[in-house]
Design brief:
Distance between the termini: 12 Å
Radius of gyration: 23 Å
Bound molecules: adenosine-5'-diphosphate-glucose
Strand order of the largest sheet: 5-4-1-6-7-8-10-9
Length: 462
Amino acid sequence: MDRRLLIVSNRLPVTVRVADGHATVRRSVGGLATGLQGPHERSGGLWIGWPGTVEGLSASALADVDRQLAELRTVPLSLDANEVSTFYEHISNGVLWPICHDRLDQLPLSVDGWDVYESANAHYSDAVAEHYRPGDVVWVHDYHLMRVPALLRERIPDAKIGFFLHIPFPNPEIFFTLPTRRWLVEGMLGADLIGFHTRRYHGHFRAALRRLFSIEADAQGVVPWKDRRVRLGVFPMSVDAADFAQRAAAGDVIAKVAEFRKPHERLLVGIDRLDYTKGIPRRLLAIERLLTSHPEWKERVRLIQVAVPSRDGVGAYRRFRGEVEAAVGRINGEFATPNWTPIQYIHRSVSSTILLALYRAADVMLVTPVRDGMNLVAKEFPASRIDEDGVLVLSEFAGAADELRDALIVNPYDIEETAEAIHRALTMESSERTRRMRALRATVREHDVHRWVAGFLSALEG
Ligand code: ADQ
């Protein structure tokens, strides 16, 4: 791509660390950051977003942060305390997130602050307009910024704007509970291209357009909107498979694998943000069911569940954390022996060495969200299994299930079925494990994050 790429996301793909009054800025390693790094650098473009709250720095240290951010070609946008609590925590994570994951039960009873969502989105749009040069391509990401395409279109009518939604677009019956449904969809329609992970979310969005505005997409997925044409498309996001394969072979990873594995014990692994969409409580119940209906696994199987702290500023998450901890305590209390504890629960972020070692050590990887836009863990696991072993148990409600058909697909609401799938995974013949893992690896290799980025950008240019 010759044109300059301006990427806009709520958060910048960086971590600012402060120690002794000094700050260092590092690029973060998430899927989006990794996938877009190449096009971002090659195009000489900019990444615009919030670097997070940075506290306890002098003016000169702050200037140093700005210099480091500029070196990474990122443009920091500051959010004030009201924007953080209302736009980011309350509306984005407290309202849009549960609605898009079908969790009306997690909604606060009263919702105020759409005006702050709008003004924060305007704030991002102003920053883009300030840096925009004719010919640039703008790529806006995710549910925090659904109004940005339309607000940017007002500022720069002929800009090339793409929008990608990283979470599900729900069934209109659920989306329409939002009093602001029309206004949010109008916001997205400011783009030239709107991308979704799966055909299902794309279908839900088309159904919403039909019901809200009586407009219909043609065979190419193009809808007429005002005096423009907006294209809708399906672009399943992925990971940098080659990079995972390479890093998974490192000596420090292999040394850790040896530490995690114990003779006579099979290892189940779960790695998630601590979020009520990821299905952790039902996964724990499935482990309990497994130990009850197949008692031969007692003292022979262990689950390592890593749960990264997430969104502690949102009430629903604080309550949820207590629920998960209580379930772990109850099940461990019920089954543990002096030599063995069935669930090892780790409530923190882990290094990439540990993450890769857990992927490589797992006999069975449990990815059982009750709803998930894509779920990159489901793709990182096979990408890391250069030994072509290990079984993936995957929820049918993760976007990744549309592609990863060689996983054992489960309905996470069916505890019995999930427990039986884990048993089947634990007893699967080595030849079947290898056949399935080879197929999973081939899928993730062929459809990697670079292909995702190239596919979206070429559709946008087209
Ligand atoms: P998330 O909900 O954050 O993303 P996911 O796709 O699984 O979910 O990505 C999580 C990332 O965090 C993975 O790259 C994983 O390696 C990393 N991670 C998880 N636990 C970790 C830990 N303890 N320590 C360190 N790293 C950890 C949203 C949507 C998803 C969608 C992505 C991308 O909710 O459905 O797949 O965006 O579009």
